[in-house]
Amino acid sequence: MASEKREQSIGQAQEQALLHGGLRGRMAGAFCTLQSSVDALQRYLLTGTTPEVYETARAMLEEMDRRLAMLQRISGNAADLACGVLTRGAEELAPLELTDYLSEIAACVNEELTLRGFTAHLTVRWKDGPFWAMATTGLVDGIVVNLISNFLQVCPGGNIRLTLGPDRILRYADDGPGMDASAAAALLERGEAPISLQKKGSLGLLLVREYALAMNWSVQVEPAEQGLAIRFVLPEFEMPAARSSLWDAAAETRSRTSLFVARLTRELDGVFGLPRPAPRNIKK
């Protein structure tokens, strides 16, 4: 009887994981088609019309790009949030060395912020590394991207800090205005219902919570005189013997940073917009 219940539970988790992937996949396919249509329209206006006609349509193309980026961000986040609770425990976690990985993506964050004109800066600190955890880069990326996006919306300049401690705690802190009681409740899984928090703009914090809980990280809000301070308490870790030798963690980390950059770019495009660059070969 117990084995039947366990098999049923595993089957439900697998079904929800497939549903999650299906939602994201269908949305990604739809947005890819829409973006291709916009690009095709731009090429037609560029090569098949006069410069005057193209300039007339430029504002419309830029607005279409902005709206597509915004909707793509919202749809992806909504899929994560809708399926997050149901798929807890269904993620396939693997050993991840966080000091190297967070340092790599911090460099990507700071480069992207500079390109966009933000003066905010992300710093990663650690004590007594390396710092291993059972995680996935996708979930870690989601936590970092959403925390940075939330910070930039209220404070485009200032310091953001990630600190890895020997006490199995990952600390996030920034120089922003902090959070109100309802936002703190969203992170701690108590207080207002998610729908009311979403209306207040706390969707990013709800996603941070879901990504953390999917890796069995507990979330705590620390008191701070200024800004936001969050602690992620990570479970104890022991490297599996089968993977403890001849494992090039650095190479594995480098191969995944491009996925983080794509996710960060999509998030910031959706929040702040990215104007379509002016073409260089308008038909005369």
Automatic annotation (TrEMBL):
Keywords noted in UniProt: Kinase, Phosphoprotein, Transferase
Family annotation (InterPro entries): HATPase_C_sf, HATPase_dom, TCS_sensor_his_kinase
Uppermost EC category: transferase
Boundaries of every Histidine kinase/HSP90-like ATPase domain copy: 135-238
GO molecular function: kinase activity
Keyword match Transferase: yes
EC identifiers of the protein: 2.7.13.3
Pfam families in the record: HATPase_c
Highest taxon of source: Bacteria
Reactions performed catalytically: ATP + protein L-histidine = ADP + protein N-phospho-L-histidine
Gene3D superfamilies: Histidine kinase-like ATPase, C-terminal domain
Stated name of the protein: histidine kinase
Lineage summary: Bacteria, Bacillati, Bacillota, Clostridia, Eubacteriales
